[in-house]
């Protein structure tokens, strides 16, 4: 559920594209979801799109990124310019992640995948962008 900084993400806000075979080869699904600059705060609907590989949720009001951890096939994740203070997911939650942009957030600590996975995780994410990082 979103707080007073944004609205819950709903189907009408989604810009779904790129239809590809699912990783299980049982059918086809959208693999790209863009929702940029729409004042979104809540991400509960993401569970309905388990095969998303490219996700751009930049320039919104997102604080809680836990729903993203259910998207096991994400390769590219753009969460730039939101209101994220911390990332509550483990390295194994997003095992295929290759690109992560967390710039322009209010991070108070590095995302757990970077803290607990150390250099192994950094090596698996070729392009990682985390700016404006404050240690408290």
From TrEMBL:
Top-rank taxon: Eukaryota
PROSITE patterns in alphabetical order: LRR
Repeat among keywords: yes
Keywords: Leucine-rich repeat, Repeat
Matches recorded under Pfam families: LRR_1 (PF00560)
PANTHER family: LEUCINE-RICH REPEAT AND IQ DOMAIN-CONTAINING PROTEIN 1-RELATED, LEUCINE-RICH REPEAT-CONTAINING PROTEIN 9
Protein's recorded name: Uncharacterized protein
Organism (species): Durusdinium trenchii
Lineage per the UniProt record: Eukaryota, Sar, Alveolata, Dinophyceae, Suessiales
